[in-house]
Amino acid sequence: MGVRLFNRTTRSVSLSEAGEQFVARIRPALGEISAAMEAANAFRDSPTGTLRINTSEGAASMILEPMLIEYVRRFPEMRLDIVTEGRFVDIVAEGFDAGVRSAGDVPQDMVGVRCTGRLRFVVVGSPAYFANRRKPKMPEDLLAHTCIRSRLPSGTWYRWEFEKRGQERRIDVDGPLGLDNHHLMVAAALDGMGLIWTSEWNVASYLADGRLVPVLEDWCPYFDGLSVYYPAHRHMSAGLRAFIDLVREKTEAAAT
């Protein structure tokens, strides 16, 4: 072309000003080509390509994990790229085909497909922890308890949220242990190290067998659950359509 598109050094490669303009001009065309290829792919008997999904760790365990093996078995020519992270991302800007989040967090310009029933977060502790402690009756009582704190992606500590008949509480709990992994939090609670605030789904088996005990249940309301969401105004690839169909199939089966 006779124009320098890259700036090269011994340690890095970056776009030149001309290169940045060139990429900006061809990016829409590349998007159209990709969409055209996906549209043609829809006529195949089985979808091919890569499906990228962004989700939280908890949602991945709850929703995606049971479906991944089934999806790969049904569509062996598809590749799945699942990224789990706590932060809420712009799935279009970051190159994802779909996301999984709380139904109430789905952006208005996205199509949401419900993939769970109602869910809730609960406060739980082990019988050993409560052996010599009184159970909290009000959210503020947690200030006198040892709690296992949850670190947000921003680096701040999560303030536990409660609601009862329109009354809302956010409690800045305290304790010697802070984690950013719900599986580790559950393990710590089972070991009697303190109380945790977690999805009821994460601890359902331990609640059933009595290894963990719920408290403040009347302050822990249900919410609408999780949804798979994707851009409303973008061509839906055959791989994404197949995944959405699988989600609907599994969700309807679970409801019956």
Sum up the structure in keywords.
256 residues, alpha/beta, D-Maltodextrin-Binding Protein, domain 2, 2 domains, 5-stranded mixed sheet, 3-stranded antiparallel sheet, 6 helices, 31% helix, 24% strand
Topology:
Blueprint: E1 6-8, E2 13-15, H1 17-41, E3 49-55, H2 57-74, E4 78-84, E5 98-102, E6 110-114, E7 121-125, H3 127-130, E8 149-150, E9 160-164, E10 167-171, E11 178-179, H4 182-190, E12 196-199, H5 204-208, E13 213-215, E14 226-231, H6 238-255
Parallel strand pairs: 3-4, 3-5, 8-11
Antiparallel strand pairs: 1-2, 5-14, 6-14, 7-12, 7-13, 9-10
Please describe what this structure looks like.
This protein is α/β, with parallel strands linked by helices and 256 residues long. The protein folds into two domains: 45-117 and 225-255, D-Maltodextrin-Binding Protein, domain 2 (3-Layer(aba) Sandwich), CATH 3.40.190.10; 121-219, D-Maltodextrin-Binding Protein, domain 2 (3-Layer(aba) Sandwich), CATH 3.40.190.10. Helix content is 31%, strand content 24%. The chain has six helices and 14 strands. It has helices at residues 17-41, 57-74, 127-130, 182-190, 204-208, 238-255, and strands at 6-8, 13-15, 49-55, 78-84, 98-102, 110-114, 121-125, 149-150, 160-164, 167-171, 178-179, 196-199, 213-215, 226-231. A five-stranded mixed beta sheet has the order 4-3-5-14-6, covered by helices on one side. It has a three-stranded antiparallel beta sheet with strand order 12-7-13. The N and C termini lie far apart (63 Å). The relative contact order is 0.19. The mean pLDDT is 87.
